[in-house]
Amino acid sequence: MSSNALNPSSSAASTETDVDLAPYGWDADWEAEFAPYAAQGLVPGRVVRVDRGQCDCITPAGLIRADTEYVTPHDPLRVVCTGDWAAVDPVGGDPRYVRTLLPRRTSFVRSTSSQRSEAQILAANVDHAIIAVSLAVELDLGRVERFLALAWESGATPLVVLTKADLVGDETTLGHLLADTETSAPGVQVLAVSAATGAGMDVLAASLAGGTAVLLGQSGAGKSTLANALVGADAQVVQATRDADGKGRHTTTTRNLLALPWGGVLIDTPGLRGVGLWDAEGGVARAFAEIEALAAECRFHDCAHESEPGCAVLAALDAGELPPRRLDSYRKLLRENERIAARSDARLRAEMRRDWKQRQALGRHMMERKRGPIRKP
Question: pLDDT value at position 33?
Fold first, then answer.
């Protein structure tokens, strides 16, 4: 089946073709997980796009449209998401329904920009998280670190891709930009690429061989152009960025799963204006691994790295071994994550109190019905 079959602009009508799901991530473990549903006559499908109560799935019978009525819980982390593996009605049903989702191996989650501190899942069952950063504008290392924290927390392996490298004036400047990014991404592969010239694209393609990759970044980062270069077709519409600030116009408006020519799939996502943390303490620790390693050498296990004696973090800062910007960013993300956790816990407690009051009211109502009407003497 060609990659064009997964172009979201094409029809999602069922096609009677025998599709091998292995290039889309299906393996023996997924098959074992799916066995109980196969016994019920359901078929496996990978969600390639979600749209208003329906989703497109790639199944052994081809690309189909299915209704998600049975799997739309109140929990925002359990809604159907691009990248999910689902148990779908067999051919013949009209409409066809997604009956359940298989447990996710990984999930990329951020907090929404609303004041309610709700989680939003962006992609599921991802192996590689590609963080696209445009070199057409000033490099924002703080945003890179924020994406890295979320990527590590998701369970995927992050990869930072500096796009539009052809717009950098000279190799020396490009080298400095690469070095700065590598300092802010310990243990993470950093690549400078140009979809326009093809520079670095072969290395990127090799790094993504097999598995599922999700493409993340701000509008104008060149994600759609990068996706087209990787897929080898105009799978995504590309729009020019604004000259004033290098920002794009949200070329991609939905999360789409695209087949890669060498195997594996790529999930392209809309540009993200806000990248809020969500329960990402472990991800922050991975994103700032060198600070965590230093913290383990502090005299006190609960050292806040402010003014405590014997603080290895502050010693490294004074010695010039740790950039002040890194420590500031580390503190900022930890504080933000703590605030989000506190707000979400408060919201959960409020919901529990509301449910408890509702059960109390129902209990009183049932007791009054059981007693019957009060008769006046």
Answer: 97
